[in-house]
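quick one: fe (ii) ion bound model?
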Amino acid sequence: MQREMELEIGDRINDLVVNGPAPATTGFTELDPAVYTDPERHAQEMAAIGGSPVAALASSELAAPGDFVTTTLAGVPVIVTRDRSGDVHAMRNVCAHRGATVETRASGSARIFSCGFHAWSYDLDGSLRSVSDPSLFSTEPCTQGLRTLGCEERHGIIWVTPDADAESRPIADWLGPEVDRMFTELGLGEMVHFAATEYDLGCNWKLLTDGFMEIYHLKYLHRDSIAPYFPANMTTIGDFGDHFGGWLPKNRFLKELAERPREQWEVLRHLTGAFILVPGTVVQWQAGHVELFSLRPHPTDPTRTIARLTMMVPADRIDETELWQRNWERVCVTIPDEDFAAAVEVQANIDAGAVDTLRIGANEHGIARHIEAVTRVSVARREPALS
Ligand code: FES
Ligand SMILES: [Fe+2]
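yep, here:
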């Protein structure tokens, strides 16, 4: 199965090599920089992110029963846990009594959660375990636990829907059959966390996804880092429902195409693939490991975003520490110093009122399509609430 998918991808890249990247057949489009600053638009996007699955962490980060992590997703304080039977749960990290934060540690292992304010306690699935001094508190029993959130483990990632009132969709449905199949074939489910870090960035979250939606910048912005490994302007990026994805060959793959017959092509180890899941998650395949970008916009400030970057590697190759460490160090230089820095620079110029319009080329059209998809998802999320 994986071999079939590899050859399909190889054929598409071969077409691209034979025919060359398509020249522009349309003019450039103008984009209003307000898409990166408008508070009303931002509020709608936040509602869409709250109502969609967010990549909270790698499954392997909650390795043992009782493991938990606390975080903030779409502005909602969240606890993600693994219970004694191995199932994962997500709850608002907010006490059902009078709203205190229940778990203040960033991560750890717990048998129960106990609120520091009046010691109400909760099980690993968020259900109420005990009320302190119950006879003084009320004549009626209280059963209200923590508000539970949609939570599913799939493809080695724990996905949480931060809005407690949102209808939680199965991840396979949300990804769509093609992306779901791709992630299965790539073996994401057998990958484990190697390292993770967070960046607090002064830019709109979409300026970060824009970097994945075009490769025009690759040979210029990344001239001194990764550009030498890739041919210019070659990508198969396309739409998958509301999501996007595509492959970039490395020079070594072009050599493979030229020198070996189709049945001997080694494909996946010579490619980078990027899957931009709307809204706010990017899964990047890098010739054998995966970089997971979970973009967490500030709830009210459109010009701030936390980007959580996690590197996942095949569980059966976790011991190749030197290789993964080298790759991780490369990621931690290229992405923040080049892509993230460019996004922050553009945002600063927009915030200074110095950008009247942005010009999006035919080769960058993915940026406009991504913004359209975000708008579509945001409107779809708002409409049921209005009816
Ligand atoms: S607010 Fe948590 S026990 Fe009172
Ligand atoms: Fe880039």
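The chain has two domains: 2-53+173-386, 57-154.
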